[in-house]
Amino acid sequence: MMFMTALHHLVVGLVAGSGVIMGICAILAWFSSYISNLESSKTTLDRAAYVASIFTLLAIPLAMISGYYSSTNSGGAMFYNKFLFSGIAFGFTSSYLVGRVRFGPELWKYSSLANLQMVSALFALTSIIILGSIGSKITLGESTLDILPFWPDFMNSIVINQWFSLLLVIIGLVSVVISLRSSSMRFFLND
Questions:
Q1: Cα end-to-end span (Å), the chain
Q2: Distance of alpha carbon 108 from alpha carbon 90, whole angstroms
Q3: Helices 77-103 and 2-31 meet at what angle, rounded to 10?
Q4: What is the pLDDT of residues 145-188, one digit of tens each?
Q5: Using one digit for the tens of pLDDT, what is the confidence trace for 110-142?
Q6: In the chain, at which end, N or C, are there fewer CB atoms within 10 A of the end residue's CB?
Q7: Dist. CA 170–CA 22, nearest whole Å
Q8: What does the alpha-carbon distance between residue 165 and residue 172 come to, in Å, rounded to a whole number?
Q9: How far apart are CA 131 and CA 117, in angstroms?
Q10: For the stretch 153-190, what's the b/e string if a residue is b when 16 or more beta carbons lie within 10 angstroms of its beta carbon?
């Protein structure tokens, strides 16, 4: 399993790098509507965030799989939290990518869509930063985010009932279907 450990370190670096590029470029693209110096860079920032979000989506599952197989003691609260935040990062990155694919680069012209994109990118970036912190806690015993006074204790985790988890998944899927149907209906009504 030594190969998996090296692969995991490589893939984690790729997730962190592409996730940070996605988050920072998306936030700067959002700021470009308010700061005239960034207006000329909006297209470049949008494209960089778009490509980075695709790469991040491909790399997160690889990081999860390689992390599972490279771990000597899979299990425990820290690993549970790492998978939880991996899923959150994957979800927000997916949200960013779907919005960008659905509405194209013109979405930055509409404040509500631009705000949603920026929030999705910001939460994906935050989740990736937390993932890195948990990983460094596991491997090094410390993290750069330990300086924060409100940092949560990742040695413990909240475990919920499997039926409640299933209910949350069903609610999430129904929400996605409703939002896709309502957005497609508005799209056809506007034409």
A1: 56
A2: 22
A3: 40
A4: 777 776 666 666 655 566 776 776 777 677 667 666 655 545 44
A5: 888 888 888 888 988 888 888 877 777 777 777
A6: C
A7: 29
A8: 11
A9: 21
A10: ebeebeeeeeeeeeeeeeeeeeeeeeeeeeeeeeeeee
Per-residue pLDDT of 17-47, as tens digits, reads 888 999 999 988 888 877 777 667 888 888 9
> Hey, what are 45's tokens?
């920032």
Q: Which residue has the tokens 């998978």?
A: 83
Q: What does the domain layout of the chain look like in residue ranges?
A: 2-158, 160-191
CA distance 186 to 7: 45
Token output for 111? 């404040």
Whole-structure pTM value: 0.76
